[in-house]
Amino acid sequence: SWCPLSPAGAQTTQLLVEPPWTPAVLWDKVTLICQDLGATGATIWYKDGKHWGQNRHDRFTVTESGTYMCDRFGIGLSLPVRVLDGPLVLQVPTWALLEGDTVTLRCRR
């Protein structure tokens, strides 16, 4: 399933990550999906705070580590998503958790 990195309604443009773990890691073959509230047009991508490209694709598979954001047709920037390429990472689910919830952590190498 696709899971937003921020609660619904917090941003008009949301950057979703699949698989739904954070931080995302390159060796998971991470796909980023830029969503909005119905805007049509080009998706503008940013990597490490710089304009990275503009195209009609609202999703892609990440091939480089970095911090990604997107904007759908000038609606507004999404929250950032970090994609790492480290040897060891502790991951948590991207969905919202409340105090008292049971959570599964993944320590991966």
From TrEMBL:
InterPro entries: Ig-like_dom_sf, Ig-like_fold, Ig_Fc_receptor. GO terms for biological process: cell surface receptor signaling pathway; immune response. The keyword Electron transport does not apply. Keywords: Disulfide bond, Signal. GO terms for cellular component: external side of plasma membrane. Gene3D superfamilies: Immunoglobulins. One of its GO terms (molecular function) is transmembrane signaling receptor activity. This is FCRL3 protein. It comes from Zosterops hypoxanthus. The lineage of its organism: Eukaryota, Metazoa, Chordata, Craniata, Vertebrata.
